[in-house]
Specification:
Layout lengths: L1 H7 L2 E6 L3 H10 L5 E7 L3 E3 L4 H6 L4 H4 E3 H4 L4 E4 L2 E4 L4 E4 L4 E3 L2 E4 L11 H17 L2 E5 L3 H13 L4 E6 L10 H13 L3 E4 L3 E7 L2 E4 L4 E3 L2 E4 L39 E3 L12 H19 L16 E6 L3 E6 L2 E5 H7 L5 H7 L5
Helix pairs in contact: 2-9
Length: 362
């Protein structure tokens, strides 16, 4: 009888989104005897997204970075579907027609992705990207943020004979950090014959026979292109839910110091979907996940007054990989580039560390 009573007292936790924040939260709660948790994700796997650019030049690398949810959450309740609704009865509706009740809800939907691919299809996509790069003489990259710079670095290091052209609508590269850092990245790329065009956009629909038109009227000839611009926040579906008034004008969920969605005592949000005033980075999203995991445990014990507060990062910290051996690091407002920053990130891109956090072999 005692066991049955204990089971009845378990709190139902639903996590929407199995990205970098949602996956770590689920792993932290997995098999916790006070929780029954369900992960709802539009894809069947967790992907270490910052490693995808290496996987485009080395497809075998992706086998360590695309991880089936059941691999790190054995026996867990996982629903592969889009969440489409949240109602006043504390239920989440999914696109496949299910309704999942919760005592606590955590939203970790991050940014929109091509999330309806299966794991096998995603791995094949990396193979296709590799073949595209391998068979092309000239490659166009659209976007000069960290993804665009890192992809350019991966290509020129692994395929130094390729001609890479990078177009960015901003006035400098890596606008999320300092002008000095952007200049160092620009110098590194141009020294390796990457043609960087700033202050311009590209009409990709104009790419007939590999000829693309820029906003300034210039033409770019390339055999293929890759888009490395940021995706929209994954919150548009919430506009028709009870959270519609909790979204700010940029589509982010407004949260308090405990990462609870404003206006709701039992709904949390973590990662890029929140309005926390800091850079949207993977390691910060993981910090969100650990704060909310602690707060859920405190709420279970009736210790709401002891809930942990999250303090936004006050200074930017970033490491932008430049191929397999070098990187650009921006730490305490100082930009460094070369082998030393590369030792921190570029060889393994934190893949081993992330896998260990999920209880997997590095």
């Amino acid at each position: 009888m005692a066991e049955n009573g204990s089971e009845e007292k378990k709190k139902r936790v639903v996590v929407i989104g199995g990205g970098i924040a949602g996956s770590l939260l689920c792993k932290t709660l997995h098999k916790h005897h006070h929780f029954d948790f369900t992960l709802i994700d539009s894809k069947e796997y967790f992907e270490i997204t910052w490693a995808k650019l290496r996987a485009m030049v080395e497809p075998s690398f992706a086998k360590r970075t695309v991880i089936d949810h059941h691999e790190y959450l054995p026996g867990a309740s996982i629903i592969t579907s889009d969440a489409i609704g949240i109602d006043e009865q504390c239920q989440v509706s999914t696109a496949e027609g299910r309704q999942i009740a919760f005592d606590y809800l955590v939203i970790a939907t991050g940014h929109l992705t091509n999330s309806h691919l299966t794991k096998t299809e995603r791995l094949r996509q990396f193979e296709a990207d590799y073949e595209k790069i391998k068979s092309s003489d000239t490659i166009l990259i659209v976007g000069g943020g960290p993804s665009g710079v890192e992809l350019a670095g991966e290509i020129v290091v692994d395929f130094p004979a390729k001609k890479v052209k990078l177009v960015h609508r901003g006035s400098r590269l890596l606008e999320f950090i300092s002008e000095t850092a952007g200049k160092k990245a620009l110098d590194w790329l141009t020294a390796r014959n990457v043609e960087v065009m700033l202050g311009q956009s590209v009409d990709l629909d104009s790419g007939s026979d590999g000829v693309y038109l820029t906003s300034s009227g210039e033409t770019i000839v390339a055999d293929c292109h890759f888009i490395c611009t940021s995706e929209p926040i994954g919150s548009s579906w919430m506009k028709e839910t009870i959270l519609k008034y909790s979204l700010d004008d940029r589509g982010r969920l407004m949260v308090d110091k405990n990462l609870r969605v404003k206006g709701f005592a039992n709904i949390f949000a973590i990662g890029d979907v929140t309005d926390v005033p800091e850079l949207k980075q993977g390691y910060l999203a993981q910090k969100h996940a650990l704060v909310v995991a602690n707060n859920l445990k405190l709420l279970i014990r009736g210790e709401e007054g002891k809930m942990v507060k999250y303090y936004p990062a006050t200074s930017a910290l970033a490491i932008v990989s430049l191929g397999r051996r070098e990187a650009l690091a921006y730490i305490l407002c100082v930009a460094m580039i070369g082998r030393i920053p590369g030792l921190i990130k570029s060889k393994d891109l934190f893949v081993g560390k992330t896998r260990r956090q999920l209880g997997l072999q590095a």
